[in-house]
Amino acid sequence: MTRKQRRLTMIVAALAVLAIALGLVLVAMRDNIVFFYSPAEIVAKDVKPGTRLRLGGLVKEGSVEKGEGRFVSFIVSDGNGEVRVRYTGLLPDLFREGQGIVAEGVLEDAKSFRADSVLAKHDENYMPREVADSLKKQGHWQVDQKTTGK
Q1: pLDDT tens by residue, 94-105
Q2: Its pTM surpasses 0.70
Q3: Cα–Cα distance between 148 and 110 in angstroms, integer?
Q4: CATH homologous superfamily of domain 35-142?
């Protein structure tokens, strides 16, 4: 084998090892990625039950039901769709009806979600931009002129 052929073989082998390593990293990351959806997107995109995701929207007025212990159930709405969320644990201090929240957990079916964690905030700091923009377009989001700076 000539010197040029050995060099070409080494370059091809290095690129193959790099491609395999990149493929392994991407497969490992795929299992850790959690996608964000609004209630309407769950139905529109036909998200399969058992999918781990983040659900965001507003807590529907009159939907909060507290059970035994720390169990709570409530409906998250984006104006176009609704999903019932079941959660066991301590809710954030800012959690209340009409409040924007993000819940992370597993979709049980198109209308039922089991949350592992719930985040609530009085502005869009904890709300993904897509959901905040969607709620603003529908008129469900209260925009404070001081916070937007516009």
Answers
A1: 888 888 899 999
A2: no
A3: 34
A4: Nucleic acid-binding proteins (2.40.50.140)
